[in-house]
Design goal:
calcium ion binding, TCTP, six-stranded antiparallel β-sheet, 162 residues, 32% helix, Translationally-controlled tumor protein homolog
């Protein structure tokens, strides 16, 4: 997890395969423990990105159209800016956010980058209950192949302290 430009939280993901009811511990290596062998059983298997499966995110293909995405992001950024102002953020911070977020959105809309994006929402949003931000997943080419990165706007998150 890293914060990019004080604006976007990025989470590096990975493709996983899970059996129904399987508990996955952080750092576990199924191949070393012999758990990745197919035993011929008819268990339900899930395949996907770890953070998508962990948080039961639902893919939103509607935003694969640039115009639809631009409409969503414009309304979403307006809500964030209103929230920042309502909560007393200094005007210079709000203006800095506006500049940075506009540059970030423009970078997402570049054709070579936009085609590598996928859009996800939470379970409750998919059922029409509640609000939230659309999680943007970008597939980046790295040494180990295509790697998914989840991107969330920092100002749109509610921080919980334990």
């Amino acid at each position: 997890m890293k914060l990019v430009d004080g604006l976007i939280w990025e989470f590096k993901g990975r493709q996983v395969v899970r059996k129904e009811g399987e508990i996955v511990l952080a750092g576990a290596n199924a191949s070393q423990e012999g758990e990745d062998m197919d035993e011929g059983t008819e268990e339900h298997v899930e395949r996907g990105i770890d953070f998508v499966l962990n948080h039961r995110l639902q893919e939103m293909n509607v935003y694969e159209d640039k115009k639809m995405f631009q409409g969503y992001i414009k309304d979403f950024m307006k809500k964030i800016i209103e929230h920042m102002q309502k909560n007393g953020k200094p005007e210079d911070e709000v203006n800095d956010f506006k500049k940075k977020i506009q540059a970030w959105v423009m970078s997402l809309l570049k054709p070579d980058r936009f085609k590598k994006l996928a859009f996800f929402i939470g379970e409750k949003m998919a059922e029409g209950q509640g609000e939230g931000q659309v999680a943007i997943v970008e597939y980046r080419d790295e040494d180990e192949g295509e790697v998914p990165y989840l991107m969330l706007v920092k100002e749109a998150l509610h921080e919980e302290k334990y």
